[in-house]
Every structure is written in structure tokens, then in C-alpha cells.
# Entry
Amino acid sequence: MSQKNIALGKTNLIICGAAVVLIILGFVLMAGPGTTLEGGFEPDIFSARRIKLAPIVCLAGFVLMIAGILFPVKGDKTEESKG
# Structure
């Protein structure tokens, strides 16, 4: 059986997986009740969790995703790089 040649290694995929979890967590932190006409004004839309914490968590996830993609893959050297 031959191993498939993929662009990202195991470490890269683990880092990208952690980044996806962070991004999803950030969007979950942003979720909450919205202001509706029937219910009146909902002050929770301006909470620190939804305005400060959640975007920082999402940004950290996106930065980690870039780091996971750019992380150098350690593995077998091809003949072209040896030459």
C-alpha cells in the first residue's frame, strides 16, 4: 500500500483542527439573543463577551490557521531538494 502524498503533515492538520475549534468557539461566544421589536431593547448585544472576547478568539483561530498552514512539514526530502 502506498501512502497518499498530501500537502500538509499530521502536525499541520492538528494545528488546523485546533484553529477550526477556536473559530467555532468564537462564533458561539458571539451568539445570543438579538433585539426584537416585540421584546424591546436587549442590552446583552453590547456585552464584553460579544464585542471583545469573541472577536479576539476568532482572530486567534484565523492566525492559528495561517500558522498551521505555514508550519514546515518535516519528512522525507525529495531528490530535487537533495540535488
